[in-house]
Each structure stands twice: as C-alpha cells, then as structure tokens.
Amino acid sequence: MTARGFGLVELMLSLAIGTLLALAASAMLTGAHAAYQRNSAAARLDDSGRQALAMMARAVRQAGYVETGAPAPWPAALTGLDASGVAQGGHGIDGPWPAAVNGSDVLAVRFAGAGSGGGDGSMTDCAGFAIGAGEEGWSIFYVATGADGEGELRCKYRGASGWGADAIVRGVDSLQILYGIDTDDPADGVPNRYLNATEVAALDAAGDGWRRVASVRIALLLHGERHSDPGAPAAMYDLFGSGYTAIAGGRDAGVAIDEKVLPAAQRQRVRRVVGATVFVRN
C-alpha cells in the first residue's frame, strides 16, 4: 500500500487552524494581563483611599481640642479654602496660594497639644509628631503635583524648625471638602446643611460660621499607574454624587472630573472615588 503525505490543502488548513489557535491564546493572555493590571491597580487604590481617609478622619476628630484651663477664646478649629493650593513654607494656609490641582480644596485642622515637654503622644499632627501642652498643632491637607507630574495628597505641619509638608498618598486627582453646619440656636452638634469653604467663610462674617462646623465631608478621586485601564472610555466622576454636581457644580470647582479634559497621559487609568463624613468631637 502506498503511503500518502499531506497535500497542499491539508497543509494550508493546518496552518490556518494553528494560526487561529495562536491568536486566540495571545488574546486570552493579553486580556488576562489587562485584567490583572486593573485588579492590582484597584487594590492599591483601595489601600491608598483607606490610608488617606483614616489619617484625615483622625485629624478632624482632634480639631478644636483644648486642655482644661486653656485661655479663651481659642481660634476656629477648622478652616479651609476652595480650589486652591498652599505654600509649603508659609504660615498655615496664608497666601500666596499656588494654583489648585483640578480644583482641589484645602482642609486645615488646628488643635492644642497635651502632655509635658514634647507631648504625651495623645495629640499628633498629620506627620505623626506629638504636640505638647501649650503648643498649637496643625494638620493641613491639600493636593500638589510631585516631581514626576503625578498629583499627590500632602500633609502640611509645623515642626520645631518651621513649616514642612510631606506626601502621604500618590495618585490623587482631586480633594473636595464640604462642611456640615449646625444652624440651630442653641447649637445641638448636628449638621443641618453642607457648604463649601467659600460659603462657610461668607457666614463667618455675620455668624461665626467656622465655629458652627459640626462635621466634615471628605471626597478624593484617586488614579492608578499609567495604562492601568487600557482601552477604557473616558468617564465622568462626581465626587459628591451627580445630584450635588447638578446643583453646585458651577460654583464648586473640582467636584466633577471629566477624564476627556485631562492630559492624555492621565487617561485610561483605573480610578476610584472614596469618601467619608467625620463628626467634629470638640
């Protein structure tokens, strides 16, 4: 019996099937890699969000702490700025004010220290330094652009030799703050309405608005590394929800971030909106 080899048709068919299988395997591998990138970036953003909110919440809960017998009146425990940066070396949130990153806000928390000498560790600033009795502690949160062009959440504080600032979370598009105002008279510690810093400052001239802040609503938009979400369409992010954007977006810069208007290098990244509402204890 005469043995036969593959004919041209069989050979071409085998090559076509092999090519299709290779392409399918390559597509599966590419898809799996992209999914891994997205999941890894999302996990890192979740960790960064928890870290940022925990640090800011702790600072807000310390706001206005004063030791028994401290002289009165104590300055307002909380202040802030809308759509502004902060000079790293200047006093508190005094000007000059650098341009804001995507309309980001500034939150400044002030509190008294506790314990003799360098403090007993019960009152610390956002850099982790203990503040002693008779000293005034500050924790100031704002967004600035790092040397690599990435936005980062920074903590500004007053050290022994002057003012300093450290990055605490990288990959931040925007920080937005609303203040829960207790409008009752007498005050009952329950917020009745939420205002931005500009609106609270307008109340301050007539009714000492900053002293009526009963809670702070924090929202952050975080992003992953470059190309962490390849092929993703541009999305709109409403940091306080679409309802607030519809009502106040025109007068409160930064509460809505449209990826289409971001620089090309900032697009196609995994993003997360994280937030918390923290009540002021003191």
Would you write up a description of this structure?
By secondary structure, this protein is of the alpha+beta class. The protein has one domain. The chain contains three helices and eleven strands. The strands form three sheets. A five-stranded antiparallel beta sheet has the order 1-2-3-4-5, covered by helices on one side. It has a four-stranded antiparallel beta sheet with strand order 7-6-8-11. The protein has a two-stranded antiparallel sheet with strand order 9-10.
The number of distinct helices, counting runs of at least 4 residues, comes to 3
Tell me the strand order in the biggest sheet: 1-2-3-4-5
Order of helices and strands: HEEEEEEEHEEHEE
Number of strands: 11
Mean pLDDT over all positions: 86
Low-confidence stretches: none
Q: Beta-strand level of the residues, as a percent range? A: 25-35%
Distance N terminus to C terminus?
Answer: 100 Å
Main beta sheet: strand number and arrangement?
A: 5 strands, antiparallel
Structural class of the secondary elements? Answer: alpha+beta
Report Rg. Answer: 26 Å
Based on Cα principal axes, name the global outline: elongated
Q: Estimate percent helicity.
A: 25-40%
Give the total of domains: 1
Pfam families: N_methyl, PilW
Protein name: Prepilin-type N-terminal cleavage/methylation domain-containing protein
InterPro entries: N_methyl_site (IPR012902), Pilin-like (IPR045584), PilW (IPR032092)
How is the topology of this model organized?
Blueprint: H1 8-62, E1 78-81, E2 106-112, E3 136-145, E4 151-159, E5 162-170, E6 172-181, E7 193-195, H2 197-207, E8 213-223, E9 236-238, H3 242-248, E10 256-258, E11 271-279
Antiparallel strand pairs: 1-2, 2-3, 3-4, 4-5, 6-7, 6-8, 8-11, 9-10
Pfam families: N_methyl, PilW
Protein name: Prepilin-type N-terminal cleavage/methylation domain-containing protein
GO biological process, one term: type IV pilus assembly
